[in-house]
Amino acid sequence: MVSHLEIYKSNSLNPYENLSCEKYLLDTVENNVFRLFLWQNDNTIVIGSNQNPWAECNCSLLEAEGGFVARRLSGGGAVFHDKGNLNFTFICSEENYNLNTNLQIIKKACEFANIPVEISGRNDILALGKKFSGNAFYHAKGKAYHHGTLLISTESEKIKRYLTPKQQKLNAKGVKSVEARVVNLNQLNPDLTPDIMSNYLIKAAEFVLNLPSDVVDCDINQQIKDRALLFSSWDYIYGKTPPFSLSTYKRFSWGDLEINLNLSGGKITQIKVFTDSMDFSLSEKIEAALLGVEFNLPTIESHIKNVLDTTICDDTLSILRNALTD
Q1: Is residue 160 packed enough to be buried (19+ CB in 10 Å), middle (13-18) or exposed (0-12)?
Q2: Which fold has domain 244-325?
Q3: CB contact at 8 A, 94 and 139
Q4: Phi/psi at 20 (nearest 5 deg)?
Q5: Residues of the chain with CATH 3.30.930.10
Q6: Labelling 267: which of 31, 218, 225, 297 has CA 20 to 30 A away?
Q7: What are the per-10-residue average pLDDT scores of the chain (326 residues)?
Q8: Which of 135, 119, 137, 117 lies closest to 127 in space, CA to CA?
Q9: Global pTM value
């Protein structure tokens, strides 16, 4: 039975620190404690545990513009986070876990904000028939969390910019995100901000659980920093990607170039290059340079520049760059 309500508010906008802090709060929660973790990321795409980042978002464009790609522990689809988005995590032991209780807290917080909402299906919360909150879930070692997003004043243009990559004959396995009609809550209450909504969530948790709360700043201690190294690692974000394949083609002044890739664990495991270039060894050079390398632009560029002359090198990199950023 829950007898203590703890509120943790993150001062960080770094997704890897926040995901690490979330995991730390889960690992250390006691059986009689219910924790509400409130946090924000800036300019971040967060994908589900079983998703392909290249199939879900324009990774290279986002990172080139100072953003982050992160992979969370829970399942579900890809979401965009910025400072107009408030994230919540309900954390407790599995014996005290109750999805309806969590949804009622969100609903009550919206009522405090004078926004009428409805619970639809198993875990969707809608305002005017549109989604403003996405939810995902994680259970491990007798403990559980339910976390999600609250769109308050998120830049909708960035959602479209980063979450809608042009597929270049990409054949990807893994969980796909589902498009939904969404709404920012400040369209329904122009005075609402993430800080105000944060206070409403605390007030709603106290009301629904009928408990006073202890509000604690979530300090980034060494254990959290150690966990953050995992969440920020290339192997965790990209290396966990299910196998997929990609093809890209373009006609240049010197000839046609078609590159077909099979990838597993975020690395190029098979490559076949077709070209009518006068350089009979071009296909072999590209294949030998890229086989086994990580599927990211800096690594690809460094390997290609070592084996190709300037013009063909630049053109080859252009279609590979397009495959990663368009």
Answers
A1: exposed
A2: Enolase-like; domain 1 (3.30.390)
A3: yes
A4: -70, -45
A5: 4-237
A6: 225
A7: 96 95 95 97 94 86 92 92 97 96 96 93 81 91 96 91 63 58 93 98 98 86 86 92 87 90 91 87 91 90 89 90 71
A8: 117
A9: 0.84
